[in-house]
Structures are given as C-alpha cells and as structure tokens.
Fold this protein.
Amino acid sequence: EDFINSALAITPEPLGTRVFVAEQSGRIFTLTASDEGLESKSLFMDIGSQVLSGQDSGLLGFAFHPEYNQVGSPNSTYFYLYYTHQREEGDFLRLSRFSGSATGNVGSELIMFEQQLGDMMHRGGGMLFGDDGFLYLAIGDLGWMTQSQNITDRLSGGVLRLDVDMQGGAVSHAPRRTLGDVAQGFSGVGYFIPSDNPFLDEAGGLFEEYYALGSRNPHRMTKDRATGIIYIGNVGANSGDKREEVNVLAKGANFGWPFREGTQDRPDLMAEPDNLAGTLTDPIHEYQHTSGDGCSIIGGYVYRGNKLPALTGQYLLTDYCSKKVWALNVAAGTSSVKTEVLSLPHNPITFGEDAAGELYVGVQGWHPVYKLVPGADSQELELPTLLSETGVFTDLAMLTPLQGVIPYKVIAPLWSDGAAKLRWMAIPNDGTHDSVGEQIIYSEEEEWGFPVGSVFIKHFELALDERNPSERRRLETRFLVHGEAGQFYAFTYRWNDAGTDASLLEASLEETFTITEADGATREQTWLYPSRSDCFVCHTSAAGRVLGPKTRQLNSTITYPSTGLAGNQIESLNHIGIFDPVVDLASLSTVLTSHNIADESIAVEERARAYLDANCAGCHRPDGGPRSTFDLRLNIGMEENGLIDGAVIEDLGIADAKVIVPGDPEKSILFQRLQQLGTSTAMPPLAKDRLDADAVALIRDWIIAMEPLPVTLTAFSGLVDGNTVQLTWTTASETNNAGFYVERLQAEGWFTLDFVSGQGTTLEKQHYSYTDLTIPDLADRVTYRLRQVDFDGTFEYSEAVDISILQVEVQLASNYPNPFNPVTTIVYQLPEAGDVQLTVYDMQGRRVKTLVDQRLPAGTHEVVFDAEGLASGAYLYELATPTTRLSKQMLFIK
C-alpha cells in the first residue's frame, strides 16, 4: 500500500515531521521517515485532473516556502508546484502557489506563470528555495534547442530566480518583461525579480527571471544543506557526442547548450554566439553514453545524513538507463570523479531527502520509494551514550584526560563564536610509538598523516557573563576519529545544565543563551551543536580531515597540566618518538609558523594570512570544493594563491568585484563574506552567530594596506646630488612584477638607462633606488619615468618626474615607506638657505603636527614623522618656504 506511482519530488516539510512525495501524475502524499524507510502514507492533495502527464511532462517540481509551518508567518501554508497542464487551447507549463497544512487546498492555486508548449520534452523540474530566500526553478529548453541561449523570447533553458515574497525596495522589483509581451502566455504574477539577478534590463528587453542559462534538460536540482551550493543534473542529447553532466549553479553561468554539451563543442547543433550571455561554465562532471554509465542523468544530493558516514560530503547521482548509483567527489571541482556504490532494481527518476539528511530514490512505475541504508557488510558505529562512558577523562569535573591523551593548543585557532576551547589528541600505541601504526607522518609545511585509531577531542565552553569570563558554561565535547579504510567519524556530546556529564547527540541541535555583556547589556546567542556530517563541511577530505595539529600551528610552547612543565609542543611529541621521520629540532626556529591575530608585534599580513589559513583553507584550496578557486593555505605564496584580483563566482552585486582588490575591501569578496552574518553568503557557512570583530578589522586593514601597482608619482621621486640624480620609489604591494625599466627623456625620445628587478608578488612594502651617473652635459632639467613589467610581458608606465639640475627650485620627495606604521621619513631639498616649515595635516585641513619651523641651509634634509597615537588614515604633509608651497599625501595604517 506504500507503493508510489513514479515519485518525482521527495522533500521534508519545514518545522515538521512529514516527508512529502509527489507523483508525476499529480497526487501528493505525506509519509513518515523511519530507519526502514517511509511509512504511514496519506493523501495530501490530488491535482491529477489538471496535470498533463507522460514522457517529460507531469508534476515535475515541488518546494515549500521556507516559512512553512512558522507560526505567525503569512507564508506558513504556502508551497509551490511546477507542472504541465492541458486544456482545449493546448498544452501549458505552469508555476503555481498553493496553500494547505493538514491537507492541500486545490482551489487555492495562484498561477504565477503559464507558458504555451509545443511538444512533450525537456521540461526540467528541479525547484528549491536557496539560502537567500529566493525560489530557484530549473527549466529545460522545451524542445527548442536554441532557446537555451535566448533570454528575450520565452522562459526556457536555464535557472530562474524569483522573489515570491515580493519585497520590493532595494531587494526586488516587478518584472519588466512578461510572457504576455511576446504572446507566449502570462507571467509576473505573485513574484518580483531580485535586483541582483544577473540579466537586468530597465528597457524591458530581457526576461530578468534568469539566473543562469544554457541548459538542455535540468531534470533535478538540489541544494547542499550544509553549504548552500546548488547542483544540477543536466540530461544530455540522444545524438552526436551524447554527454550527461553535473553543473554547479552560479550567478550568470552559461552551461553552453546547444553550442556545447558538457565540455564538447557542438557546432552541428549551433555556432557559439558572438555575444555570449553570461559566463561560460564547465560542468564539474560529465560522462558519455558510450562509457556504459548510462544515457539520462538523475541528479541527487550531497549526503549529510548520519547512517552512511563514508558518503558524507559526496554528491549522490544515478542514471535512468544504467540504474547505477555513484558517489561523486564534488570537492574536486572540475576534477571530480565518481565511484559506483550500488545498482537499483528499477529505473530511477529522482532523489529525495528527509529532515535528517538521509536519502531516498524514486523510480518509474508503481514501486516503493527506496531508502539508501548501510549494506550488509557495513558496521554501524556504536558509541557510548554519555561522555563519562568513553573513558577519555579520568576526572570529568576537572577534565583530566586519561594517560596517553595528549593536550595541545594551536597558535591560530578557528573562530567559534567566542567560545573557549581545550584540545587533546590520542595516537594509538602499545606503550611506545615504535611502528608505522603508532606514529604521525611529519611534514614541515603539509598536513600530518595520522594512523588509524587516532582520536582528536575538542571541548567548548562559553562565558554567559562577560564581566566574569572565567565562569563558563560547558557546551559540548567533540570527537574526530580516524577509522579504517581512510574514513573519519565525527560526533559530539552535549553537556547538561549542571555541567556534570554530556550526552551523545544523534543530530544537529540549536540552543539559545542569554549573554550578559561587559557593559551589563544582554544579547541572545544561538549555539549550533553539529550533526555528524556537519563537522565535515570544514573538516574536508582535501585538508586530510584533521585541521589543527600541524607544524605551523603547534610550533609553540605549552604548559602540560599533568607535570606543570612547559615546552615546545613539536619538541615534546618528538621526544616520545611519535614522529616519522624524526624532527630536526634545529629546524623549528626557521619553519613556517602561524601567528595569532592578537599578536600586534607581528605584521598585519602575516596575522591575516594565518587566520585565513586556520579558518578557511580547509575548503579554499585545491580539491576543497567546487568554489575553491583560490588557495588560502599559509604555505602558498601570494604570487600563486589566486587572491589578488582573483575572479569570483558570485560578485554579490558589487561592480568590479574580485577575491581581493588591493586597497579596496568594499570590492573584495573575501572581506565581504567574512563580515556578513545571517546571510546565505556569510563565511564560514555554518555555526556562525557572532562576527569575529577583531578578524574583520584585521582583514580590512590588510586589504587597505595593499597598494596596487603600477608605481605612481606619489611613490616615485628624484633628488640631485652633485652631478648625479638619486631616484627612489616605493611599492606597497606587487603582483607578478618582473621589475622596472628606468627611462630618461632625451631629444630623440625616451631612453632606457637600466633595469631594476622586482619582487614578483608580495604584499610587503618594497623600496627601490637607482642612481643616474650619466647626466647630459649642460642639462638644466632631466625627466624620468618607470616602465613596470609583469612576467607575462605586460607593462605600465609611471607618471614622469621632472627634476631641476640647477637646483633653483625647492623639491619635496614622497615619504617612505608609504603606507607606514607608525614611522615614515620625509626628504626635501633647498636650492638656497631660507626659512622652512614642514607641517602635517589631516584630510580636513586641521594641523596635526609641525615637524620643521626654522631657517635651514641649502641642500638635502630629512625628518622622521612618528604617527603613534594618531588614527589610521590619509594625511597631508606640506613644505613651505617664502617662495614655494608643496604638499603630498601619505597613508598611516596601524
């Protein structure tokens, strides 16, 4: 009786216990999830009388409003259906809103768009709400291939993004082009266009609903509940090269159909448009029909359940023809590979997910919905229900670890919403670490390798009264275990209110605490206890799952509680023989080492990069995920990590946005996502209820201090010294800088004097100088410029600097270094003795400090300006004599 006739949508209800299953024919059932599968089937709604079903038609998409079941919300009963409809006038494609709680109300339908159809093919049907609250709908080319590159004539061949809440204002606006304008039906009912959609046109010439285009038949589209990343299973053609593909949705993406299928050009179908709309985007995985993998991809979900830990973070997909199910390593991006995990008894047509993240498969015909469960050879992870039963601590009240459980601390900790943390590790041994299975594979810069059986423990506490930070509420104690066959397992114990013991959690949980702040005010803070799969959002396979223990994080001193003795952590571990190879202790003074963001004795760049290495490099590194286009590991140089002016996948609506735009945090997406809270684009993507204000300020200062090349006049000056000219220039940052040609203007044009090598890519200030010993005889003035050259041969000229050889003018050079913290040097020249004033002003013209106010002889003079005690920012310095007044700008960055 629990059979379903071709289930095409399987989804859990928000804030509820039911799982909804929609049949292709138009019936919708509710069921209850159990360890065995879906039970207690009950009819919720039947719109079969108005659904055209067959081939690619039917009830194709189902999505709940995110506020479904939310008390007090006007959206608490809304759900959305995408289906094909038939009446005397012809066949139509509809997106509609319905309402209903215990049962669905057929009469509540609001048709949001209705579009006339020509055949029965390529409808798409994936539909969901993104983390941004907007509705996403994947729609096929409807049998007209070239429509997938056309966003003016109809809605087809891409992904639509709609504001069904019609928020208006800066968020969204009414559609400016509708299907009625092109005699294709009607649209624009019950939704607005998000104002950061990529294809906007105030003149109304484009369908602004599009978020991406170039799809043939995006039959299933799903969202990774942990990261918010949206994946599409895009069904390929049945002629020619015949490729199936998995796409990752991105703003403005163009997946290439029909001039391209997967990564293969298809000139037999269409030539690539001269003016391509959007950004051509490769699939992260594709396979040919000739491979034997199948002929019609059915996209699935990234697994985030608890029953199949070996599949955590893997994208499950299948194929209608081969009935094979694979796990795809989406962390590898376009290098993703899939591994077959099982075969199905019937032709699959959809995947589904329940509230716990467990996965289901719907098949064609009258069959059960199948649940993915551990195989007969799988062993369920049996864990103690209480922390006290693990035996890890001999004294739970004092958190005294069992002998052999080693405490450690990291230099640059992960941000955990202000919680205090303690850490331990246990490496298996029989009393001595004298075999491969008992030792850590040591590396100076890469991840350490840990033997099977290694256990890592992290304990979290939170001060509920920040006026008394030593009094803390125990929250949770997490475990990460290295199991067999390269698998890791993660789980956590939540402490009781008395702080006497902690209970094993089977699923994620949120708890809200009232925090008294230092000034006596209060705030609410929500703490997320992670599920077993949530942990692997950050503890990625690319990072080796273990994030903290590595050379650069442990190359510091710790006081061991059991002995009261202090020592370098790596030296201490080396002493007990835990490393292979044995560590050369003399090297510890020179190895790459992290820094804490609070250590102001360390340069801003070093602290900023150490913070990003600890908090973000688990994903942002090679194979870290489909969006890991740059590398935040500390051991990767700035010249190769892709940060500076790196291309972004989502620009957040910011013009000219890059990963980092030197000097401009407002256009730097890395900074923008770090400083966000409670948005779909905030980083990290989960367990973030408080901003790390110190880190936000640090990253902002770091980006501001990055002055981009080329060198400008403000950083390029020259002073006469007898019959020579001393040229000096300064860079605050460099990108792929091969060096500088020093050029002097002569009667026949610019003449190259010499080449000065650059520093490649660096964010450290660099100072350069060149002495011209070949001043032409009788010259009274000389003019110089720099030609800065990149390694690829591209170049830019600096502004020219004009210098009087006869020294009849006052000259003021650029300060160096610039930017500075807190000291900089200002140099000036006087052609004759006289009264001089050198004064510093803020940008409002207020005098900050007088550096010189006296009569000085002719010649070169210099003065040191100390900005200690001043606010960061730009300042002016002015040199005044009885005949001349010169000024320049300098930048003070703390």
The two ends are 71 Å apart (CA to CA). The CA atoms of residues 480 and 490 lie 5 Å apart. Confidence is low (pLDDT under 50) at residues 709-714.
